[in-house]
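Students often ask why inverse folding is considered easier than folding. One informal answer: many sequences map to the same fold, so there is more than one right answer. In these notes we will look at a single instance of the problem. The structure comes first.
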């Protein structure tokens, strides 16, 4: 009789590894075979940057909803939603809408450990356009819907996302709790500062230093806000975290930022229904104005090329550039030189001997007045005067082109929905225009 023998430790380990590989193959093997066969486009939405998440998700939806040609075999896009995002309501609204698109394969990191693992791996592999030859896999961190936005057979304008009836009712009730009667025109106002970055990116001590040139002085906006209040608007100071209260006391001025009143849902709902958004220094939250097709006035814009790569909406976008001064002789850089010095890093401006000059109180007030007039002209299909706009952008984009940069898709919106205030360009024409 042969005695029963216990399996060796090695055999146990091999059996365990075999079982583990078998379980892993089902989800991962299927995914990789799918990717290999269809050559699909994979997009991992951003998990921490408010503006990047919204801009990319909006562009993906735009491309899906307004296709310029019929979808071909294998022309599918895989969209991976991260587990954590900067705004929960944006996540819900985009996820809900993307699930209705038949050319988008939506994977949610919250619903699957496998998807969450894939998200983390893919995010580390590449954060920009790249290629993994072994799978024929293309990864993208930036999606630009510009070619679809201005296609001849453009179907639906923004907004591409919306609220249910219950959400609409809840949102208007919250607005009334803020002290704004339903139907009253209000303005979403925000000035970029370092407070949000300090809290959100506390693990990255270099974050605020990198973006310091984008933070304009609060006090330069007082005159413009007082003008809007006198003109009958309610003004809501937006922001999740701010450095301090805005120095205005008025019954129609709402210090919403950083208070217990704010929420992710109300942030989005307020921008979705505002009459105008005023933004000091480009910030992620201003993307909400664009994706909900609201007029947007942005001051202290830098670098200018970046504002032609974000959703331009089919509504109005007025953008005032920050001037750049040569520290050596105090000269203001012209449009071509501004294009050459289109940095996104504060340290690079310092190294190049350039000082970023914030827009003055007078320039900001003038920009707001220009925007209010332009809204009326835009709604009546008339365009604001664009002579100086044409000259500025021809020189600016011409310089970018000579450096090898492609022409931004949103450049076609200049003079249609994208403007720099004419009086700003006229006042600085000797400095900016050759």
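Output (designed amino acids):
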């Amino acid at each position: 009789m042969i005695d029963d023998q216990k399996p060796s430790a090695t055999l146990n380990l091999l059996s365990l590894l075999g079982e583990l590989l078998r379980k892993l193959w089902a989800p991962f093997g299927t995914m990789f075979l799918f990717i290999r066969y269809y050559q699909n486009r994979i997009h991992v939405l951003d998990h921490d940057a408010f503006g990047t998440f919204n801009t990319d998700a909006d562009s993906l939806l735009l491309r899906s909803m307004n296709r310029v040609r019929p979808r071909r075999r294998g022309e599918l896009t895989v969209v991976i939603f991260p587990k954590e995002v900067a705004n929960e309501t944006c996540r819900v609204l985009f996820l809900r809408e993307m699930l209705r698109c038949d050319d988008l394969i939506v994977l949610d990191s919250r619903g699957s450990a496998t998807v969450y693992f894939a998200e983390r791996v893919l995010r580390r592999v590449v954060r920009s356009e790249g290629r993994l030859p072994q799978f024929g896999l293309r990864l993208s961190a930036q999606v630009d819907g510009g070619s679809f936005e201005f296609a001849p057979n453009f179907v639906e304008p923004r907004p591409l996302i919306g609220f249910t009836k219950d959400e609409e009712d809840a949102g208007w009730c919250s607005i009334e709790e803020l002290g704004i009667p339903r139907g009253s025109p209000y303005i979403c106002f925000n000035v970029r500062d370092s407070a949000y970055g300090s809290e959100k990116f506390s693990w990255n001590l270099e974050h605020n230093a990198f973006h310091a040139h984008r933070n304009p002085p609060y006090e330069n906006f007082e005159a413009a806000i007082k003008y809007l209040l006198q003109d009958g608007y309610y003004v809501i100071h937006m922001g999740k975290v701010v450095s301090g209260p805005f120095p205005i006391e008025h019954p129609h001025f709402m210090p919403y930022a950083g208070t217990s009143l704010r929420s992710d849902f109300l942030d989005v709902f307020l921008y979705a229904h505002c009459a105008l958004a005023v933004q000091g220094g480009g910030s992620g939250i201003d993307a909400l104005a664009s994706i909900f097709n609201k007029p947007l006035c942005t001051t202290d814009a830098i670098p200018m090329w970046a504002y032609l790569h974000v959703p331009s909406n089919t509504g109005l976008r007025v953008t005032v550039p920050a001037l750049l001064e040569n520290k050596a002789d105090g000269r203001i850089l012209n449009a071509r030189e501004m294009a050459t010095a289109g940095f996104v890093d504060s340290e690079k401006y310092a190294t190049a001997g350039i000082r970023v000059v914030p827009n003055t109180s007078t320039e900001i007030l003038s920009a707001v007045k220009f925007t209010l007039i332009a809204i009326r002209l835009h709604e009546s299909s008339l365009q604001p005067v664009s002579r100086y706009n044409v000259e500025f952008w021809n020189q600016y984009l011409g310089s970018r082109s000579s450096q090898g940069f492609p022409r931004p898709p949103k450049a076609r919106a200049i003079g249609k929905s994208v403007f720099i205030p004419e009086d700003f360009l006229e006042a600085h024409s000797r400095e900016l225009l050759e």
